Amino acid sequence: MVLRHQPETIGIQLDQNGWTDIKELIDKANNNGIKFDRETLSHIVATNPKKRFAFNETLDKIRASQGHSIEIELGCMNQKPPEFLYHGTSEKLVQSINEAGLEKRSRQHVHLSSDIETAVKVGQRHGKPFVFKVLAEKMYNDSFQFFISDNGVWLTDNVPTEYLKRND
C-alpha cells in the first residue's frame, strides 16, 4: 500500500519514478508500528511470487514495479506486444467490461498478462474467474501504446470493447 498508493501514511515520499530510500522506509515504517528490517525487505523482494517490488542497481532504493494509483513515471518504453494478451477478472464484472471496455480507473494503467494461467489467477482474486483475450497487436497497429513493467505485466491506458474477445 505504501509503495503503490499511500506513501504519506508513514511519512515517506516517492520520487517521480516511484523510488524511495530503503533506510527511510524502514525507519518510518518502524516508527509507525510496522516492524521489519533490511533482511526482511530483501526476502520480500526476492520471494514475492508476482515480483511486485524491485531494488535499484545500487540497492539503496525500492519501488513497486507497477499498480500505482499515484502519478509516477516507471520509465517504460512503448513496445509492440504479442498478438494476444489476457485480462483476468470476475464473472460479475463481465457485463460492465463488455459495455465500457477495460478502464484504468484509479490506477495508472490497465494490467494485462501474457499468458492465460496468470490471468485466471488474477481473476480468481475477485470471484469466479473470467478471462478476456485482448487483441493487443491490433491495438498497437491502431496506435495504442503498450509498456511492460519490470515484473512482466503489460500495461496500457485502456482497452476499448472492439479489442476484447471471450477467451475460449
Which helices and strands appear, and what pairs or packs with what?
Blueprint: E1 20-21, H1 22-31, H2 38-47, E2 53-55, E3 61-64, E4 85-90, H3 94-100, E5 102-103, E6 110-112, H4 116-124, E7 129-134, H5 136-141, E8 147-148, E9 154-156, E10 158-159, E11 164-166
Antiparallel strand pairs: 1-3, 2-3, 4-7, 5-10, 6-9, 7-11, 8-9
Question: What report would you give on this structure?
Answer:
Its EC number is 2.7.1.-. The protein has helices at 22-31, 38-47, 94-100, 116-124, 136-141; strands at residues 20-21, 53-55, 61-64, 85-90, 102-103, 110-112, 129-134, 147-148, 154-156, 158-159, 164-166. It has 168 residues and is an alpha+beta fold. It is built from 5 helices and 11 strands; from the N terminus they run βααβββαββαβαββββ. The strands form 4 sheets. A 3-stranded antiparallel beta sheet has the order 1-3-2. The chain has 2 domains: 7-64, RNA 2'-phosphotransferase, Tpt1/KptA family, N-terminal domain (Arc Repressor Mutant, subunit A), CATH 1.10.10.970; 85-166, ADP-ribosylation fold (Alpha-Beta Barrel), CATH 3.20.170. The mean pLDDT is 86.
Return the CATH architecture of the largest domain: Alpha-Beta Barrel
Q: Which residue ranges are poorly predicted, with pLDDT under 50 across at least 5 consecutive positions?
A: none
Just give the CATH class of the largest domain: Alpha Beta
Tell me the total number of β-strands: 11
Task: Compute the CA-based radius of gyration.
Answer: 17 Å
Q: Tell me the fraction of residues in β-strands, as a range.
A: 15-25%
CATH topology of the largest domain: ADP-ribosylation fold
Structural class of the helix and strand makeup? Answer: alpha+beta
Summarize the biggest pleated sheet: 3 strands, antiparallel
Q: Could you give the distance between the termini?
A: 35 Å
- Overall number of structural domains: 2
* Order of helix and strand elements from N to C terminus: EHHEEEHEEHEHEEEE
Helix content: 25-40%
Q: How would you write the strand order of the largest sheet?
A: 1-3-2
Number of helices: 5
* Average pLDDT level: 86
Overall 3D shape: elongated
Family: Belongs to the KptA/TPT1 family.
Protein name: Probable RNA 2'-phosphotransferase
Function: Removes the 2'-phosphate from RNA via an intermediate in which the phosphate is ADP-ribosylated by NAD followed by a presumed transesterification to release the RNA and generate ADP-ribose 1''-2''-cyclic phosphate (APPR>P). May function as an ADP-ribosylase.
EC number: 2.7.1.-
